[in-house]
Design brief:
The protein is an alpha/beta fold and 648 residues long. The protein has 22 helices and 13 strands. The chain has helices at residues 36-62, 68-76, 126-132, 148-184, 213-227, 229-234, 253-264, 283-297, 326-339, 361-364, 380-390, 402-407, 414-430, 438-450, 460-479, 514-524, 526-535, 543-558, 576-579, 586-613, 615-628, 633-640; strands spanning 16-18, 80-86, 89-99, 110-117, 136-137, 242-246, 268-272, 301-306, 347-353, 371-374, 486-490, 500-503, 630-632. The strands form three sheets. The protein has a six-stranded mixed beta sheet, with helices on both faces. The protein starts with 15 loop residues before the first strand and ends in an 8-residue tail after the last helix.
Amino acid sequence: MANPVPPRDRTDQPWRSEGAPPPPPPQGPKRKMPGGWGGLILTALIVYLVANLVLSFFNEGDEPTVSYTEFSKQVEADNVTKIYSKGDAIQGQLKKEKPTPDDSDSKRKNYTKFTTQRPAFADDDLWANLEKHDVTVTAEPVVQERSFLSNLLISLAPMLLLVALWVFIARRMSQGMGGGAGGMLGGRKQPPKPVELEPGKKRTTFEDVAGIDEVEGELSDVVDFLKNPDDYRTMGAKMPRGVLLAGPPGTGKTLLARAVAGEAGVPFFSASASEFIEMIVGVGASRVRELFAEARKVAPSIIFIDEIDTIGRARGGGGSVGGHDEREQTLNQILTEMDGFSGSEGVIVIAATNRADVLDPALTRPGRFDRIVNVSPPDRNGRESILKIHTRGMPLAPDVDLAQVARTTPGMTGAELSNLANEAALLAVKRKQKQITQYDLSEALEKVQLGAERPLVMPDEERRRTAYHESGHALLGMLQPGADPVRKITIVPRGRALGVTLSTPDSDKYAYTEEYLRGRIIGALGGMAAEHVVYGVITTGAENDLEQVTNIARGMVGRWGMSEKVGRLSALPNDAQQAYGLSAAPDTLDTIDGEMRRIVDECYEEACRKLRDNMDKLDALASALLESETLEESDAYRIAGVTRFTKD
């Protein structure tokens, strides 16, 4: 399975990166400490003095100083256990705690250790009195005071905290000044750091891509150039500066771009074009400059821009405001950056879009995106290879035939096949199975193509009419020469439909004949024709059928030259539903409308005629559907009595 793209590390950085080394820390200009070092030293001294003053207050409050008279009373009362004397200063400890002699009761507290001062004029016999009351005179201080080093460390703690706070504030101020106005406006703040791919992590390569071998061949030139740039420089060759991947959604354009970077082993920067756009004009252009600057730092590298038609549409339309809107500025910056490349830089831009027809010509000219690679849905062998990739981590039962699944999934893209494999795995888990079976894949395919089953209880009459409706689709698909084989018929409600008839070709088709398209119209009208032939009524159940019929008929007349009156010209564009009536003269549009009606009416008459001629087959199919609700391919052809011709 493909590796997930690493997340962005900043919300204002609109790109992600793989395999890019971490950039060196930004070396900004050295800035002086606000206030200067003199102010810092002065503040430190003030903090030191205040801390010492506070500590001295705490020290004085722990052991009270008592009068010498009080000391003498305690000695006489035999309440002193030991003393220490240094000069006339005496420290001591009582046997029983006593309240401090203070006039205010609120300030009185008990103490055991004390200090006092012996007056110089005292002529009492202190030593004899101490011996008399067994008072020990120690050689160590009774009151242990903190050392000078402890006081120094305690007093330095607030200063160190202040210094750390000072440095933190100074750095934040310097960063804010470095961001400038651009940071306040949401634009460039600091050089963004690419997300470094984890060491040893497996990257996406061409082994993870299947079904589009011809596209891999074109991109192999890019890989070889990134691996061996000197060989190309020696020959004077220059690699395309930009590669545009154009194709329907889900065909693997993003996966291809990541595989090129992984195969070449170069950093990969990816972003969606819409992520560059902001409300403030100029931010998108700034982000583009940053992205290209980062890619140049770690060249050779690859920049991938997804959905580039978001900002790459042709300029000068009605959406522009004087040519200075944000989208156009972003596009202009991309054009400028790509035009400024030289062949030796080793930075290649890969972009993806499913609307290459609306891109600005300046993007697709040589020198910008000068190589356009069309990524189409895979063929049968490609679908089988894609299924093998998406199921290689799944436990498959021995009866699983991926080749058969690939045959019944024409037109499906890689993303749809991945979803198909995942749906089969989910069904196997719900059924408490240890392996994924062929039945799980078939059920998943029906769910993807037809929709999920709905627990809808229909009245018997409506259920019978639905059975004839689906039988009409199926029978005309069986009888019409060259029509797609009928794979399954069901009257179980799925999605928005009350019943479904599934028809898929045996092999991939790349060009359609007028006979095949008329057969498609006849088959699509079979449900309405069956209701008309059997019941003589027309219901709303044919809404989706009529949409398909209208699209096919419009293409036959207005785009593919299958009408003699309109002639061999393309009168309607591809997006005819949006621009209908703007690309042809009114008379031509009237002619197109008349020819569309003629073709559909002829097909409807033929559908009704065939159903009347084969009424017994129609009744047999409808009865079988009412009984079993669902008919598989072999049972449907057997019940209708029609021979199934296979063509691989």
